[in-house]
Amino acid sequence: MKYLITGATGNLGEKVTRWLRTMTPETNIRVGIHNLKKTNKFSDLAVEKVKLNYFDINTLKEAVAGVDLVIYIPSITYNLQKRITEFENVLQVVKEAKSKLIFVSFFADQENNPFVMSPFYAYVPRRLASSGIEYSIIKNSLYADPLVPYLEELIKRKNIIYPVGAEPLSFITRNDSAHAIACLAMQPVMRDQGQTYLLSMDKNYNMVELSYIMSRITDHKIGYAPVTTDEFAKIYAAEGDGKELASMYAGGAKGLLSATSDDFHRLTGREPEEMEHFLRNGYQIARL
Fold first, then answer.
1. 6-32, pLDDT tens digit by residue?
2. How far is CA 80 from CA 164, 180, 216, 244, 263, in A?
């Protein structure tokens, strides 16, 4: 069985690769890399490294050739049309190669979700359903990982400022997400029939709960003082994705980022890492 992981040098893709190599020989794993200068990320592994450009059909065909299962991790871009074109290119090549597909998605896909990328996450499942290929979908909730480096800023602000009001948010760590994706890849009985899974922690957290956890971890008082979505977009405009993130949290304010499930346990046989444990460990390591 040959596996291809796209976006393999990204934060999630690298973790998927490292989990998968604990379950199958490294020679069964092919990693698709946009910038071959980043192959050093896998210098300690015997995985096959290939160039993969979502917008170059030839590199896509070469990357997918001989592959039984493609683990497709979309690129990180907020350009809706580019994302759809990228997916259509992947779908075309996967169909031609008669490969199977795991689509790594995001749970902000509801028809009334104002997140700018919601149309992409809603489009792909419908497109896959009519594609004739064997596939499964695994949806991530919000990544907990960015909260760790965010703690220092929150200590200075003294408040979480997410514009979600009283609505809770659901999270998963990247490491747990990668473990579940690798487990799904290795269990044919759980995939290939259009199954959809949602990865989340056991419970979601409203911002009062989250701020209490953060206060205990940091020994600093952190409260909750939400700004408006417009203010949030302006605060993080310099980082280049303020508007897009604000649109995501606008969905959160509608209660659309709160779903949880036990799918992680169903796929891995263990429990997901709990928020306080994850943040405490991350904060302590960051301070070393």
1. 999 999 999 999 999 999 999 999 999
2. 24, 27, 39, 11, 28
